[in-house]
Amino acid sequence: MKRFRFLIPLFIALALLVIVTGVTYAGPPAPQSVLSLTGPAESTAGDTITHTVLFDFKDNVTVTVEIIVPNGWSPGIVSPSTYGNTWEATSVVTKSSLCSSPPSGYTCSQFQAAVGTDGGDEVLFTDTTTLPADEYTVYFNHNYTAGFGGKEDIFVGDSIAHTVNAAPVAPTTIYASDQSDCGGYGDPGTSCFQSLQQAISATTATAKEVVIIGTLTADATGATIGSNHVTTIRGDSTPILNAASGCTAVITDAKGITFRDCTMDGTNCTGGTGIKSTESGGTTVDNMTVQDFSSGTGIEFSGSATGIVKNCKNSIDNNGIGVDIQSGTGTVTVGVAGEVGNNTFTGNTIGIKVSDADAVIKGNTISGGTTGIQLLVTPSTLPLGNSVTGASGYQIDCVSGNGAAFNYLGGVSTSSGSDCADTDHQLGAGIQGWAEASSYADVVLTGGASQAVFQLTDDPYTFGTGDGDLTAFYAVRTDGTPAVTHSGGMTQTKMLMDATHCSPMTNECWESAADGRSQEGEGYYAVGRVDPNAIIFANISATSNIWFSVGLVVSLSALALGALVILRKRRC
Question: What is the pTM of this model?
Answer without folding.
Answer: 0.70
